[in-house]
Each structure stands twice: as structure tokens, then as C-alpha cells.
Design a protein that fits this description.
Largest sheet: 4 strands, mixed
Mean pLDDT: 93
Number of strands: 4
Strand order of the largest sheet: 1-2-4-3
Structural class: alpha/beta
Order of helices and strands: EHEHEEHHH
Shape: globular
Length: 146
């Protein structure tokens, strides 16, 4: 199904909530037989990824690497979606900035990254409304409001 890996030196108590909200997101999208990973990293690591893969020379909050973007990778009985990288430092900074809990920020970033793996995007206003509406619906269903 999916795994959450903490590649930082920090103890992250919110991992269980992230797991639970991703289960709700999977049910919401009516998915079976999928695999993906969520990897929690620090700012230097995500900065390196952002620079190498997106040519953006700064840290970011979340980066998704969707394997289904490459049409020559297919599997018979399941979908290998890809990897979601989340910066714990950026998540803490944003939680403080937006005046909500780290739990809410990490759950939001997890769902956001997951939806990107499925092909959702927010480059156009109409697509943003769909994706952000779906994120909020999933977070609300999970009881993640603060």
C-alpha cells in the first residue's frame, strides 16, 4: 500500500495522523492495489531535489515524483504511483505562518502530494479549485481542521 519514512533526526509524532488521512484519501479516490512512499526530509535535502529535478534553487514544502507520468512504466495488477518528499522544517514554518498545527500541515502536504501522484494539478484556476476542494474534503473527513 504505502509507507512513511522519517529520514530526519527528529521524532515526528504526526506520522500516525498522516497515515490515517492518506487512508481516507485512498478511499475517497476509490483506489485499490496501489503503492507509494512518503519520505520526510530536512530543508537541505529537499532543496537539493528541487534544484536537481525542478531547476529551482531553494527549499520547498513538498515534491511529488509521479511514476505514472512516464507512460512506459506499467504494471499488471497494481499501480506504482511514486514518491512524496516533505520537508519537516518547511512544514513547521508553514504551520506557524498559517496559525495551525503541525499535524494539519503535514496531513495537508501528504494529501497534496498524493493528489499530485494521481495527476491532479493546480496550474490553472479551474484545476486548482478541484484539487484544493478535494484536499479540504479529505482533511475534513479525517477531522483535520486545526
Amino acid at each position: 500500500m504505502f509507507e512513511i519514512f522519517n529520514e530526519t533526526e527528529e521524532t515526528i509524532e504526526e506520522i500516525e495522523a498522516m497515515h490515517d488521512v492518506l487512508l481516507i484519501a485512498i478511499q475517497n479516490q476509490r483506489l485499490d492495489h496501489i503503492e507509494f512512499n512518503v519520505i520526510l526530509v530536512d530543508n537541505p535535502y529537499i532543496h537539493k531535489l528541487n534544484k536537481e529535478y525542478r531547476n529551482i534553487d531553494r527549499e520547498t514544502d513538498v515534491i511529488s515524483f509521479a511514476l505514472e507520468d512516464t507512460k512506459d512504466i506499467t504494471y499488471e495488477n497494481y499501480r506504482l504511483l511514486g514518491d512524496i518528499y516533505i520537508s519537516i522544517e518547511k512544514a513547521k514554518e508553514q504551520a506557524e505562518c498559517y496559525h495551525h498545527s503541525l499535524k494539519r500541515e503535514l496531513c495537508f502536504l501528504s494529501v497534496h502530494g498524493f493528489l499530485h501522484l494521481l495527476g491532479y494539478d493546480h496550474m490553472k484556476e479551474e484545476d486548482e479549485k478541484i484539487m484544493f476542494g478535494l484536499q479540504e474534503a479529505i482533511l475534513n473527513e479525517a477531522g483535520i481542521t486545526e
